[in-house]
Design goal:
The protein has helices at about 5-15, 25-35, 45-55, 70-75, 85-90, 120-130, 150-170, 190-210, 235-250, 265-280, 295-305, 310-330, 335-340; strands at about 20, 65-70, 95, 100-105, 110-115, 135-140, 175-180, 215-220, 255-260, 285-290. The chain has about 350 residues and is of the alpha/beta class. The structure holds 1,3-dihydroxyacetonephosphate.
Length: about 350
C-alpha cells in the first residue's frame, strides 16, 4: 500500500462524523460480557453476536471501521460471507487487534506491559490478506501508589512505536492506544498529569523510530476523574481538560484522535465527546469515538443471546452509533436518548 493509501485509510477512519466500533474483546473479556446476560461463551455464540454487530443495517452511516479479534476475522456471517468481506461490502473498514495482551511488567508490581511483537510482521502480512486496513495495540497505564513509573510508560511507548512501524511497513494504519485506566480514586488533575506524560513518551518514541505521524491514529482515554474519586469532574471539565491535554501534547499533523470509553456510562461517553466538539470547532484533528462498551452495552442487553432479539439489539446499537456520530459534530443532545 502506498503512502497515499495509508493516508486515505487514516482519514476515512474519522471523517464525516463517523467513528470506530471496537468489537475486539479477547475470549476471556467477551466471556465476562456474556456473563452479564447468562450466556455461555461458545465459539458459535461469539460468532452469532459479532454477526449481528457486523451486519447491522444502517450502521455504515455512522461507523467507518470495526476492530476485530483474531478469532472474529476468521469467522463468517450465517450465510457464509467472511466477516471482513461483509464489512468491506458495506463500505466499513475491517481492523484487527494485534497485541496479545497486557502482562505483568517485570520488577514493577501492579504495572503492565503489552506483549505481541514476536512474529508480528508475519501476522500483519496474513491480516492484510484477510482484509485488515488498520490495526490496534492497547497499552495499559495504571494509576496507584507510586505508579505509573516512568519505566512502565517508556516501555509501553517503545512497544507501541515498534508495533506502529511494523504496521506501516505492512501497509496497515496503526491505531496506537495507550489507556490510562479510570478505575482508581485519583482526581482529574492526576489523570491529566499521567495522560500528558504518556502522550509525551508516546510521541517521542514514535518520532525516534521514524513512524509517520500522518499515517497513525491515536486512541486515547479522556482526562477524567477516577471512578472511586469522591469528587467527579462534570462534563464541561472533562471536555476542557481532555482538549487542553491533547492540544498541548499531540502533533497537529496526526489525522485523527478517537476515544475509548473505559468504563464510562454510554450517555456520559457521548456527552463528553459532544462537549469537546461543540466547544472546539477549530481543532487540528477530528475527535471521534472508538468505543467498545459504550456502544455495545445496550445492544448486548437487548440481545440476551436470543435470535428473536437480534433486531432490537441492532436498533440499540444503531441508536448509540447515531448519538456518537452527532457528538463528533457537537450536535448531540441528551433529549435524543428518549426519542427512540
Ligand atoms: P471500551 O470503549 O469498552 O473501553 O473499549 C475500547 C477498546 O477497544 C479498549 O481497548
Amino acid at each position: 500500500m502506498s503512502a497515499a493509501e495509508l493516508e486515505a485509510t487514516a482519514k476515512a477512519m474519522v471523517e464525516n462524523g463517523k467513528g470506530i466500533l471496537a468489537i475486539d474483546e479477547s475470549t476471556p473479556t467477551i466471556g465476562k460480557r456474556f456473563d452479564t446476560i447468562n450466556l455461555e461463551s461458545t465459539e458459535e455464540n461469539r460468532r452469532a453476536y459479532r454477526d449481528l454487530l457486523i451486519t447491522n443495517p444502517g450502521g455504515k452511516e455512522y461507523i467507518s471501521g470495526m476492530i476485530l479479534f483474531d478469532e472474529t476475522i476468521r469467522q463468517s456471517t450465517s450465510d457464509g460471507t467472511p466477516f471482513a468481506k461483509a464489512l468491506i461490502d458495506q463500505g466499513i473498514m475491517p481492523g484487527i487487534k494485534v497485541d496479545t495482551g497486557a502482562k505483568e511488567f517485570a520488577l514493577h508490581p501492579n504495572e503492565k506491559i503489552t506483549e505481541g511483537l514476536d512474529g508480528l510482521r508475519d501476522r500483519l502480512a496474513e491480516y492484510k490478506t484477510l482484509g485488515a486496513k488498520f490495526a490496534k495495540w492497547r497499552a495499559v497505564i495504571t494509576i496507584g501508589d507510586n505508579i505509573p513509573s516512568q519505566a512502565c510508560i517508556d516501555a509501553n511507548a517503545h512497544a507501541l512505536a515498534r508495533y506502529a512501524g511494523l504496521c506501516q511497513e505492512a501497509g496497515i494504519v496503526p491505531m496506537v492506544e495507550p489507556e490510562v485506566l479510570m478505575d482508581a480514586d485519583n482526581t482529574i488533575e492526576l489523570c491529566y498529569e499521567v495522560t500528558e506524560k504518556t502522550l509525551s513518551a508516546l510521541f517521542s518514541a514514535l518520532k525516534s523510530q521514524d513512524i509517520s505521524i500522518e499515517h497513525t491514529i491515536l486512541k486515547i482515554n479522556m482526562v477524567i476523574s477516577g471512578k472511586q474519586c469522591s469528587t467527579q469532574a462534570d462534563v464541561q471539565e472533562v471536555a476542557d481538560q481532555t482538549v487542553r491535554c491533547l492540544v498541548k501534547n499531540v502533533p497537529a499533523e496526526l489525522p485523527g484522535i478517537v476515544f475509548l470509553s473505559g468504563g464510562q456510562s454510554e450517555e456520559l461517553a457521548t456527552a463528553h465527546l459532544n462537549a469537546m466538539n461543540a466547544n472546539n470547532p477549530e481543532l487540528p484533528w477530528p475527535l471521534s469515538f472508538s468505543y467498545g462498551r459504550a456502544l455495545q452495552a445496550p445492544c448486548i442487553k437487548a440481545w440476551e443471546g436470543k435470535a428473536e432479539n437480534v433486531e432490537a439489539a441492532q436498533k440499540a446499537l444503531l441508536h448509540r452509533s447515531k448519538c456518537n456520530s452527532l457528538a463528533c459534530k457537537g450536535e448531540y443532545s441528551s433529549d435524543m436518548e428518549n426519542a427512540s
